[in-house]
Amino acid sequence: MNAPQLEVRNVRKTYDGHVAVDDVSFTVPPGTVYGLLGQNGAGKTTTIRMILDILAPDRGEVLLFGRARNAEDKRRIGYLPEERGLYRKMTVTDHLLFLAELHGVAHARARPAIERWLERTELAAWSKSKVEALSKGMQQKVQLIGTVLHEPEVLILDEPFSGLDPINQGMFKDMIAELKRAGRTILFSTHILEQAEKLCDSICLISKGRVVLAGELAAIKRERGGNVFEARFAEPPGDLAGVAGVARVELRDDAHRLHLEPAADPAEVLARLIRGGARVAQY
Questions:
Q1: Within a domain: residue 219?
Q2: pLDDT by residue (tens digit) across 238-282?
Q3: Predicted confidence band of residue 155 (pLDDT cuts 50, 70, 90)
Q4: Per-residue pLDDT tens for 5-30?
Q5: If you count DSSP H runs as helices and E runs as strands, how many of each does the chain have, helices first?
Q6: Residue 41: its pLDDT value, please?
Q7: Rounded to the nearest 5°, which phi and psi values hold at 273?
Q8: What phi and psi values does residue 100 have, to the nearest 5 degrees?
Q9: Cα(133)–Cα(238) distance, rounded to whole angstroms?
Q10: Global pTM?
């Protein structure tokens, strides 16, 4: 079996006494799409920044390509941050040439790739336009192109669908699927469960800085199938029976057993619990 291209081992990060990420671990196999799932403020971006060595963990470690990180790994990774950053006065092509150069890609090699990607993303007609003339969705496509131009082995995308209309979301999903078929390993964060279910081979669900659930999505669905699941909470929850999709609740030792309505999706019910402020310790 091929070694994982990314391993996060028991990382923890605090800010001024606030625990942002607490003992988070997960493994991303090569050639897969891995979803880092959780509500805003769950700790996803902090985890990504520790993976990229933008932040140093207080404890724990991150392994890339089966070993500790080194300076050369930056050329093997493509990163799309949640905060978009483009030089608005540059033309689309010049901006992409600049980004390619930052990753050591010569203009002669970058130009054909830029032309292919602009055609693929329906931006070819805008190649000589300034970035500031583009819509937000177009600008996000430009930034994603800049993320993949140097043909990184691992792509890390932080909330890539944020602010996109349904058409551009569909195009981004198609691009992610295309990159996976090309052998890329992709980690992306999202707070929308449906996106993770449609795209991911595996997921890690984080709530309030801690891992609630992690593993292969197909296995999770098999194990959690049916209309009953158990959850343990870090703090006493509110009215669980009032959550949409929950028919009744039993208390067994320190676990709550939730009986769901026949059409309810257990993963969506869990997402509703977290959105409602429940601190899920185990699922």
A1: no
A2: 778 788 888 888 887 778 877 887 667 777 787 788 777 777 766
A3: very high
A4: 999 999 999 998 899 999 999 999 99
A5: 8, 14
A6: 87
A7: -60, -45
A8: -60, -40
A9: 49
A10: 0.78
206 and 240 belong to one structural domain: no
Instruction: Give me the residue label for tokens 């959690």.
Output: 224
Q: Do 139 and 25 fall into the same domain?
A: yes
How many Å from the N-terminal Cα to the C-terminal Cα in the chain? 28
Radius of gyration, alpha carbons of the chain: 20
Confidence at residue 168, expressed as pLDDT on a 0 to 100 scale: 86
Look at residues 167, 190, 214 and tell me which one is the last residue of a structural domain: 214
**Residues 98-153: tens digit of each pLDDT:** 999 999 999 999 999 999 999 999 999 999 999 999 998 899 899 999 999 999 99
Decide if 46 contacts 20 (C-beta within 8 A).
yes
Rounded to whole angstroms, how far apart are CA atoms 65 and 242?
46
Residue-level pLDDT at 226: 58
Give the span between the Cα atoms of 69 and 136, in whole angstroms. Answer: 34
Domain end among 190, 214, 238: 214
Domain holding 183, by residue range, is 6-214
**How many domains are contained in the chain?**
2
**Does residue 251 lie within any of the structural domains?**
yes
Tell me whether residue 1 is in a domain: no
d(CA 101, CA 144): 16
In a domain, 228, yes or no: yes
Cα 215 to Cα 35: distance, rounded to the nearest angstrom: 10
- The residue among 151, 182, 191, 143 whose CA lies nearest residue 35 is 191
